[in-house]
Amino acid sequence: MSDARGRVTSDPMILRTESGKLIVADDIASKLQNFVGTAEGTLQSIVGPAPLVPEDDQGAYPTVYGNMYGIYHTTTQAGTVDLTILHTGSGIYHYQGWDSATNPWKKIVGSSSAQVILDLQEPDTPQFPTQFETTPRGVVIVPQNGMRAIYYDGEVALPLGYDTVPPAPFGYGPETEDPAEPNAVGYSVSHAESATSTEHSMHRDFGFCRLGTIIDGSADEHNKSRLLRSSYQAAYQWINHFGDLSPLSGRSSEVVFVEQKTTAADKPGSQVQKQVLWGNINSGPTGTIGRVLSRTKDTQNSGTQRLFILPANVGYGTMGAFATIQDNTTQQWPDNTPDSWIVSEPHAVLPVPIFKLCRLAFGRLWIANTPDDPGILIPSRPGRYGTFAEGEEIFPDPSGGEITGLWSTSGGLLVFTISSTFLLQQSDDGKDFRLITLNAGIGCAAPSSIASLEDGSTIWLGREGFYLFADQQIQLISEDIRQDTQRINAARAKQAVAAVDPTTKEYRCWVPLDGARENSFCFTFSPSGWRRRTTETVQAVCVTKDHRKYMLAAGKARDSANALVNGAWVLDRQVGSFTPGTANHIIETSWITWSSSKERKSVRTVYLGFRESSNTSATIYVYRDWRQGSTATYTDSTSATLYTEEDPPPFWGIAELNSTETPNEWVRRRPYWKRVDVEVGSCEVYKIRVETADQIEFIGMVVDEEPKLGGFGSRIP
Question: Rounded distance, CA 33 to CA 530, Å?
């Protein structure tokens, strides 16, 4: 046996981050798999996941789950409404809570028995995950594959805004059959039949009419006031439950008044003014609660062809009404509002296009990437998140590149294409927006990979790896794991999803690796660096925006039989009703002592710093001389127990609480060192791998080496 005095003890190796590079420091691992960092600075095995919806009384889980496309949680209306939304299979569902007596998932969008009937397709081609965005009134849900966006407030679900233009209305007014009797027939005359005086064009109880331009009779030889030739047109918009406006309908045909004098001298000009009836004001689609009717002023004499909104009536304060016609039933509207009373112009609105991306910023909903214009960015009206004004479209990329990501930051709205990054900011006058090119060579590959860290910086997946935006600068932060990021399936990189865990502060991004079609591999990034995670397949992920701070995932996890189970999961949580499958927890060092690899040494002892976890053991593998094959140079599967044998703790599921023979009490788990004697002689470099399927909490390790060729161990005492 060699002399212990000839051994060299390494410094403690506190492995908290990994790198795929060949030459790194000894305290950087080559693999840290299925661990999370703890508040006490250790690495702890991942637990769970737990089903979001527990089993029912018969031990069965909900059968609603199909292919997963999106999951989201938010609170709206000042936190009074809690929403968990799942897009799975051909439906979008609202989680109603644990209740074994009823289905916990309420269908809000689907081809049948849903609030919004929409044939959601289930494509197998690569696509963005379903996008979600919270607004003050509800959630915008954006399915992919050419589907319309949905707006949902927890009770009412409607397509976002209007994608069609209302048909034009029709105008009814006076008509002239005999030039000697102008404006003698038609709409106005029919209203004079019940009046005492035929000089009035409607019932006298309503007073005189108010439409038409008149001139005073002082210039007339008979001192008669005169109605000039006048004409009017109208259009209207639908308005829905959420306050969104449709595009303006086409204009009606002109309603024309021909020139007409009063019947006698000194009669007021209002005696020959008219009113108009607007008809064919169609009811809107489901969700419409009113119509906004607009009309021109006298196009012959006012000098303008513009439309102006008609108030709901001619009484005091009516300009504040939300719509002219405050229902979705009325088809006609008698118009007796004088030109001087109409001042507000209607909004010129676009039909809501099908789009892939959206984000709330500057009080507006910004939508992007339409089928006709993948590079377009369109803002909504402030506060009307399904109303998009004409003429405000922006094309960030001069070449028209497809927009692949949107994200709100404190500095503005980040806009990405696959190869460039822009920052949209409000102009100095607050009335317009300006676009700044941050980088013309770095873009975003997956819109759902974008997330903000606790310090406000933003991280996302690009073509070359992961990037970080902070202090107006973009930097590549995944150079250490380039070997792994290059394995991401480029054809399906767009389906990557990510979120930041508020407890561990980790950024987690699930991607399809190699030839995988699903996101079965997770890169995790924390202030200490990169790790990896393989415990679940995640197609969508979110963090609850409430006190729970749960990370919810939609995808697959393994059950106790190691079979993949599809569902909605709470990550890093475990419950007694569901036993998750086993996962390999791996700590693998880099090639140790590469800097002195020209001198051989022997590995004698490994000291492992653990925190007592379970009454099992970890397996130790040692590899040598840059070779890591299927068979390790040295293997020990029994010595590295996950508890200290000199002072064994009570174990969960084994120890009997308050036993009279062996009284136990719950105490904080203690750390300890475990010595493992190994025998790897005369090697250039070596690598140590610790692997277990059981729970483990790792602190660090120390290695004893014995130098060769002139080292202390070869001297004669």
Answer: 10
- What is the spatial distance between Cα 664 and Cα 560, in angstroms, rounded to a whole number? 29
Per-residue pLDDT band for 711 (boundaries 50, 70, 90) equals: very low
Give yes or no for residue 195 having a pLDDT over 50. Answer: no
CA distance 686 to 634: 11
Burial class (CB in 10 A: 0-12, 13-18, 19+), 645: exposed
User: CA-CA distance, 377 to 397, in Å (whole number)?
Assistant: 10
> What sign does the CA torsion over 479, 484, 485, 486 have?
positive
pLDDT tens digits, one per residue of 51-81: 998 776 555 666 778 999 999 999 887 777 8
User: Is the per-residue pLDDT at 198 higher than 60?
Assistant: no
Residue with the larger pLDDT of the pair 343 and 541: 541
Confirm if 120 and 109 have CB atoms less than 8 A apart. yes
> Is 695 within 8 Å of 582 (Cβ atoms)?
no
List C-alpha distances in Å: 493 to 131, 365, 523: 16, 26, 13
Res 584: pLDDT: 93
Give DSSP secondary structure letters for 141-171. Answer: EE-SSSPPPEEE-SS-EEESS-SSPPPP-EE
d(CA 148, CA 620): 55
Query: Is 132 in contact with 141 (CB distance < 8 Å)?
Result: yes
Closest CA to 688 of 619, 611, 599, 639: 619
Cα 401 to Cα 27, 397, 440, 449, 699, distances in angstroms: 43, 6, 11, 19, 48
Region class of 590: left (phi > 0), else alpha (psi between -120 and 50), else beta: beta
SS3 190: helix
**85, 143 contact by CB (below 8 A):** no
Q: How far is CA 261 from the centre of its chain?
A: 65
Nearest-angstrom CA–CA distance, 226 and 556: 80
Angle at 137 between CA 136 and CA 141, to 5 degrees: 100
Q: How many CA atoms lie within 13 A of 582 on its CB side?
A: 8
Return all residues near 180 (Cβ < 8 A) that are at least 6 apart: none
Instruction: Judge contact between 552 and 52, C-beta under 8 A.
Output: yes
Backbone φ and ψ for 581, nearest 5 degrees, come out as: -70, 165
**Would you call the peptide bond into 49 cis, given omega within 30 degrees of 0 as the criterion?**
yes
Q: 444 in helix, strand or coil?
A: coil
Q: Measuring CA to CA, which residue among 383, 379, 380, 369 is closest to residue 424?
A: 379
Which residues, 6+ apart, have CB-to-CB distance to 425 below 8 Å?
A: 411, 412, 413, 433, 434, 435, 436
* CA atoms within a 13 Å half-sphere pointing along the CA-CB vector of 405: 32
DSSP alpha helix (H) spans, 9-150: none
- Measured distance CA(165)–CA(238) in Å, rounded: 9
Structure token digits, residue 607: 């000291």
| DSSP secondary structure of 212-237 | S-EE-GGGSTT---EEPPEEE-EEEE
The separation between CA 421 and the C-alpha centre of its own chain, rounded to angstroms, equals: 19
The pLDDT value given to residue 191? 54
Q: Is the pLDDT of residue 716 over 70?
A: no
Q: 3-class SS at 142?
A: strand
Phi, psi (degrees; rounded to nearest 5) at 237:
-130, 145
Q: 386 falls in which pLDDT band (50, 70, 90)?
A: very high
Query: Is 614 within 8 Å of 695 (Cβ atoms)?
Result: yes
Exposed e or buried b per residue across 29-45, where buried means at least 16 C-beta atoms within 10 angstroms of its C-beta: bbbbbbbbbeeeebbbb
- Can you tell me the mean pLDDT for 533-556? 95
Give how far the C-alpha of residue 399 lies from the chain's centroid of Cα atoms, to the nearest Å: 26
- 138 neighbors 127 (Cβ within 8 angstroms): no
Distance of CA 688 to the CA centre of its chain: 41
Cβ–Cβ < 8 Å for 611, 669: yes
pLDDT in tens, 640-674: 999 888 888 877 777 776 666 665 667 788 899 99
- Record the tokens describing residue 16, joined without a space: 């908290």
